[in-house]
Write a structure and sequence with these properties.
The protein has helices spanning 38-46, 51-58, 65-77, 114-117, 125-136, 174-191, 203-215, 259-264, 269-278; strands spanning 4-5, 12-13, 95-96, 102-106, 157-161, 197-201, 232-235, 249-254. The strands form 2 sheets. It has a 6-stranded mixed β-sheet, with helices on both faces. The chain has a single domain (4-278), classed as Uracil-DNA Glycosylase, subunit E (3-Layer(aba) Sandwich). By secondary structure, the chain is α/β, with parallel strands linked by helices. It is globular, with a radius of gyration of 18 Å.
């Protein structure tokens, strides 16, 4: 199996990267349990005792054959600009503060972004936008996120994807979204005690967020609010005894930080900053 040096550490890795071989920020180990179908995803997600365990398990998931084949094909062939780099080629787990006030939900890893670097929203133009915005808002210690291990740290914020594998055409199927939803639900459960705002980047993330909240028994508006940039509402987590807690959490929508939106001016820095501020 051929290997290439990691662009930051110089350590050689195969593509895709086997778990537990020293990739920066890899949460998994060689014996981390792997889900191979939706039932196993549901069981492993529900039984994860911590975000670390959830990250590890989700980062080795093999439940969706089409996504596994695609992410690994991209890792083997690579883009010409990154032909000298190894590709992560695995699901991108959540990243950031384990006790976040702000939870940012995106769509899915980019084929040559997180699928290459191993960190969600890292290594592409979309990541340039969201991490720069989090830095302006005081959640990130630096405005850039180029590779796992580059020194980035989030304080008070965590960022996740509704679908954790890079999908062909950036379009996961309904079944793939439903399978991956189990990871998102458990992630929300594990941060419920601290989170006060959720930022949904795009309509897919908006729908995935509300579907997860409803499945977890949160109090949410009915009918579901229509997505739009700056759209916002409040939800409340379940309370003890089956009731609803009084503490409310803001859910705010933003146009996705895709190149299509940022290059055309559909989404500006000021618009993104305002959406993040509404989450406070």
């Amino acid at each position: 199996m051929s290997t290439l040096p990691h662009p930051l550490t110089g350590v050689p890795f195969a593509s895709p990267v086997p778990p537990g071989t020293g990739w920066p920020e890899d949460p998994a180990r060689p014996r981390t349990r792997r889900a191979r179908d939706v039932e196993q995803v549901a069981a492993l997600a529900a039984s994860a005792r911590s975000l670390d365990q959830l990250d590890a398990r989700s980062s080795v998931c093999r439940a969706c054959p089409r996504l596994v084949d695609w992410r690994e094909e991209v890792a083997h062939t690579r883009r010409r600009a990154y032909a000298d780099q190894p590709y992560w080629g695995r699901p991108a787990p959540g990243y950031g503060d384990p006790h976040p006030r702000l939870l940012v939900v995106g769509l899915a890893p980019a084929a040559h972004g997180a699928n290459r670097t191993g960190r969600v929203f890292t290594g592409d133009r979309s990541g340039d936008w969201i991490f720069a915005a989090l830095h302006r808002a005081g959640y990130a210690n630096q405005p850039t996120s180029t590779h796992a291990g580059d020194g980035l740290a989030l304080t008070g914020a965590r960022i996740v994807a509704a679908v954790r594998c890079a999908p062909p055409g950036n379009a996961p199927t309904p079944d793939e979204r439903a399978t991956c939803a189990h990871w998102l639900r458990r992630e929300i459960q594990l941060v419920t005690g601290s989170v006060t705002g959720i930022l949904a980047l795009g309509q897919v993330a908006w729908n995935a967020t509300f579907a997860a909240l409803s499945a977890l028994g949160w109090q949410t508006p009915r009918p579901r609010p229509t997505f739009g940039h700056g759209a916002g509402t409040h939800v409340a987590p379940p309370g003890r005894g089956g009731g609803t807690a009084r503490r409310e959490v803001a859910v705010v929508g933003s146009y996705h930080v895709s190149q299509q939106n940022t290059f055309t001016g559909k989404l500006t820095e000021a618009m993104l900053d305002e959406a993040i501020a509404k989450c406070r």
